[in-house]
Amino acid sequence: MKKLHKLLIFFLFTVGYTSIYGQTAFTITGYGQKLREGDSLFLSYKENGKFIQKSTTALHHKFTFTGSVKYPTKAYISRNQNPAYAYFITESIYVFLEPGKIEINSPDTLTGAVVSGTALNETLQQFANQQAQLREKRRLIKDPDLFSESEKKDTALVNYNKRELEKLYYEEADNKLEFAKMHPDSYVSLDMLYDLSRINTYIFKVEEVYNTLADNLKQSEYAAIIRERIKTKKKLIPGMKAIDFSMKDANGNTVSLSEFNGKYVLLDFWASWCGPCRDEHPSLLRIYEHYKTRNFTILSVSIDTDKQKWTEAIAKDKLLWTQVSDLNGNNSDVYQKYGITSIPANFLIAPDGTVIAKDLKGDSLTDELTKVLSGVNKK
């Protein structure tokens, strides 16, 4: 998945408060000491399921946006990169669109900006202040997607930076949970839990904090979505029996999960367009090669809808194990029955069909396999 699409999926959303807000006006006034004359600024958000974008240009280091929203809306402002076309957004800040005058002040361009003027934005800035040290750590680690061609050839560097960025991602997720726990009356907390509820391994932590939120926050449209995600992800948890299914591979042959009874199986859900899924493939290849003689295999289910893109990804990533798909995307019956709301996702299944663990990756997957397969002899 392209970085832009990741941004839109994970961060741009609206939460329904139509019972409280009518159409209300907002004004954003921004100042960046290092903004250049003619710099383009883009304000992007979603409203009623539609992507909305406004643009303006900087004049005398300043810029302005005006508009109206029916309810508090998460948005982001980017500089000189039109989100409708950019592959990677390198500089942006987040704001809440709500009634009133929102002020943005930066000693740079947008980098290091302080957002103030309205209640939600001041709460959001409070969290940003707490994250200053984490942001500095992230700034010092170059994203592999921005590597030069020569840097991309340094596999060790690529893998190291990916691991470090992933650590920071989960550290920020933990900080969001703690912040939401400490601010149960804030709409910002609901925003954070909505975001975190997409992470498979965080769903029970999200549920715990969600239960402490103020009742009025739980009446919103997206609070209902959080509850539905919690319910969905509880459909199949460790200790339950895996649900059997049959699906065709790329050659049209029918494959059933039950065919692998008697083996340890990693049931893996992915898609050709999912960047994080494909980032995991080198690790899965190493794991497969190492454990395939120890009564272990992988069965991958793609939620693609385009067969050509699916098969091309299999070939490009050199995947060696069984691959199946019904090409129904998120509407796949198996996807629904297994309670999946985001990918990558996986289930480690014992020889008797019991789910041992779910959503393992990297070192945690290797550690679990080492534990369960330690007594299994090579064949």
From TrEMBL:
<keyword id="KW-1015">Disulfide bond</keyword>
<dbReference type="GO" id="GO:0016209">
    <property type="term" value="F:antioxidant activity"/>
</dbReference>
<dbReference type="InterPro" id="IPR013766">
    <property type="entry name" value="Thioredoxin_domain"/>
</dbReference>
<dbReference type="InterPro" id="IPR036249">
    <property type="entry name" value="Thioredoxin-like_sf"/>
</dbReference>
<protein>
    <submittedName>
        <fullName>Thiol-disulfide oxidoreductase resA</fullName>
    </submittedName>
</protein>
<dbReference type="GO" id="GO:0030313">
    <property type="term" value="C:cell envelope"/>
</dbReference>
<keyword id="KW-0676">Redox-active center</keyword>
<dbReference type="Pfam" id="PF14289">
    <property type="entry name" value="DUF4369"/>
</dbReference>
<dbReference type="GO" id="GO:0016491">
    <property type="term" value="F:oxidoreductase activity"/>
</dbReference>
<dbReference type="InterPro" id="IPR000866">
    <property type="entry name" value="AhpC/TSA"/>
</dbReference>
<dbReference type="GO" id="GO:0017004">
    <property type="term" value="P:cytochrome complex assembly"/>
</dbReference>
<dbReference type="InterPro" id="IPR017937">
    <property type="entry name" value="Thioredoxin_CS"/>
</dbReference>
<dbReference type="InterPro" id="IPR025380">
    <property type="entry name" value="DUF4369"/>
</dbReference>
<keyword id="KW-0201">Cytochrome c-type biogenesis</keyword>
<feature type="domain" description="Thioredoxin">
    <location>
        <begin position="236"/>
        <end position="378"/>
    </location>
</feature>
<dbReference type="Pfam" id="PF00578">
    <property type="entry name" value="AhpC-TSA"/>
</dbReference>
<dbReference type="InterPro" id="IPR050553">
    <property type="entry name" value="Thioredoxin_ResA/DsbE_sf"/>
</dbReference>
